[in-house]
Every structure is written in structure tokens, then in C-alpha cells.
Automatic annotation (TrEMBL):
Matching Pfam families: ABC_tran
CDD domains: ABC_DR_subfamily_A
Keywords, ordered alphabetically: ATP-binding, Nucleotide-binding, Transport
Top-level taxon in the UniProt lineage: Bacteria
SUPFAM superfamilies: P-loop containing nucleoside triphosphate hydrolases
Annotated protein name in UniProt: ABC transporter ATP-binding protein
GO MF, one example: ATP hydrolysis activity
InterPro entries linked: AAA+_ATPase, ABC_transporter-like_ATP-bd, ABC_Transporter_VariousFunc, P-loop_NTPase
Domain ABC transporter: 4-230
SMART domains: AAA
């Protein structure tokens, strides 16, 4: 089952500026997917389109089997926590929960109450007087208690200290395990994504450059290093992601599903951060076409 499908999806802000263009994406249900890319790549735009807060200029997007924002039933399927964790500063924690209950037909009041008690939030505390970590936890509580099928998170831990980030991600994974949530989370913090994500979407220059299950992506990407050589004669099935040369040495990042047997190369593994950086730093003209690995 696909929880999010985009076909030639695009959003244009001006005649010349596209926030997202030609986006082709299928995110299967049951995953915690990390959405990564540089600033201005279109991550927030994609999440806003998926939440129904924006309408595409071209193409289509389908979320949980329906058109985003198309009605009450569709809105109930999607939870969204924006980057600035928007809350009503003058409302208390308890008032936020009552508002959530009145707006969401699937609202789980017991879940919301238990989470607020466990993380130690005072129900009578105004949201404007909460710390950044507490606001993020309150926003996550509202998103989870909505009982969505898909939870969209836009840089949810960017402004949090390491302890608050750890607590937020721990609680997120507990909710995923208990509710069977699908999650699409954008973040610049690759170390955090490594802890919680099993699916990856790399967005560069408003286009999807790489997508697939993290385990599979890491298995087929390799770092090769050896004496400087012409890389045009690599065996079939090896696609170059990036190439760097010094006077004496060549270092490649290649994608290959076949075993690598060449005594001239030293073969190394990549971390998730290595892989993401290779795709983000490769010039547009030399980037390989989109690769989907499931």
C-alpha cells in the first residue's frame, strides 16, 4: 500500500520560480521516511501539499488514498506538525486538547491525557510559557492523538537541545510501534534520521533524486578508492554518483547491485550521512537519474 504518491507534482510561486517541479514519489505505508535536502529544495512545500494546505500547479498528489484536504474524512487521515510547532500561546495545554477533541473525529482523549501526564506537562500551563521541547511534545501529542494514518513532521526537532530531541524521537517511535503510523519527516539532522528512519527520500533542486528503504540503499552504494584512473571503463552495472581525483588517487561513490571484484580498488561502506551528502554535493549535470530501491 502506498501512503503518499506524487505524479509530475509541481508548485510554482512565480512565473520563473518553482518550489517543486516534476516530483515523482511513492512512499509505501508502514515506514518512518526521512525527507532530506538543502534549504529551498522543496521539502516544506511537499509536506504542505501532502497536508492539503497548498494546491499543486501541475500534476497530482494522493495521500492515504485520497486528495489532500478534500474533506473531513481525508483531513482526519493526516496529522501535521509544522517546523515552528504552531500553538495558541494564550491557550493552556488542557484547552489545546479540548480543541483537538472538537476538531478531530478520531481523537483519542485517553492517549492525549496519558502522554501529557507522562511527559510532565501542567494542563493549566499556557502554551506560550512552555519551553521549546515542551511545545514540540504538545504538538506531537495533538498530532498522535488525532489517530492519523500518516504523520507529517517538518523539521520537528530543529530548535531542540539534544536531550529534548532524544525524548521527542523516542516518543515518536513509541507511537509508531503502538499505532502502526506511517511518518514522513523532514530534517537536516542526519544522525537523528539514522536513529528512527527506515526509508529515505532525497530532494534536490525541487526534484526527488533518490528514494528507497535505507537498508537497501546502503547495500548498493559503495566508496571505491585506488590509484588515479579513467572511470569511463567501469564494468556494466556500476553507476557513478560522484568522482574525486588527486594527482595519484581516484575516489568514487558508485551504485551497483553486483559484487565488486577489482584488485585496484579498495571498497568501503557508506553511512547514511555519507550517502546523503554524496547526492547533495554532486553537481546537477553529473547526477544520476532517480533510483528507487524497495
Amino acid at each position: 500500500m502506498t501512503v503518499l504518491r506524487a505524479t509530475n507534482l509541481g508548485l510554482r510561486y512565480t512565473k520563473r520560480r518553482w518550489a517543486l517541479a516534476g516530483c515523482e514519489l511513492d512512499v509505501p505505508a508502514g515506514h518512518v521516511a526521512g525527507l532530506v535536502g538543502p534549504n529551498g529544495a522543496g521539502k516544506s512545500t511537499l509536506l504542505n501539499l501532502a497536508a492539503g494546505m497548498l494546491r499543486p500547479t501541475e500534476g497530482t498528489i494522493e495521500v492515504c488514498g485520497g486528495i489532500p484536504g478534500s474533506g473531513t474524512d481525508q483531513l482526519a487521515k493526516v496529522g501535521y506538525v509544522a517546523q515552528n510547532t504552531p500553538l495558541y500561546a494564550g491557550l493552556t495545554v488542557a484547552e489545546h486538547l479540548r480543541l483537538g477533541a472538537s476538531l478531530n473525529p478520531r481523537w483519542d482523549a485517553d492517549l492525549a491525557r496519558r502522554r501529557i501526564e507522562r511527559i510532565g506537562l501542567d494542563p493549566n500551563q499556557a502554551a506560550g510559557r512552555l519551553s521549546g521541547g515542551q511545545r514540540a511534545q504538545l504538538a506531537l501529542t495533538i498530532g498522535i492523538a488525532k489517530r492519523p494514518e500518516l504523520l507529517l513532521l517538518d523539521e520537528p526537532v530543529a530548535a531542540l537541545d539534544p536531550l529534548a530531541r532524544r525524548d521527542f524521537l523516542r516518543d515518536l517511535m513509541e507511537a509508531v510501534a503502538e499505532q502502526g503510523l506511517s511518518v514522513l519527516m523532514s530534517s537536516h539532522l542526519i544522525a537523528d534520521l539514522e536513529r528512527v528512519c527506515d526509508y529515505l527520500v532525497v530532494l534536490v533542486d525541487s526534484r526527488v533524486r533518490l528514494t528507497g528503504e535505507v537498508e537497501n540503499l546502503l547495500a548498493v552504494h559503495h566508496r571505491l578508492s585506488g590509484p588515479r584512473r579513467d572511470v569511463d571503463d567501469l564494468p556494466d552495472g556500476q553507476r557513478i554518483v560522484s568522482a574525486r581525483h588527486t594527482d595519484r588517487q581516484t575516489t568514487l561513490c558508485v551504485r551497483s547491485e553486483n559484487a565488486l571484484f577489482d584488485p585496484l580498488w579498495t571498497v568501503g561502506e557508506l553511512t547514511l550521512e555519507d550517502l546523503v551528502l554524496e547526492y547533495l554535493s554532486t553537481p546537477e549535470a553529473t547526477r544520476p537519474a532517480l533510483e528507487v530501491l524497495r
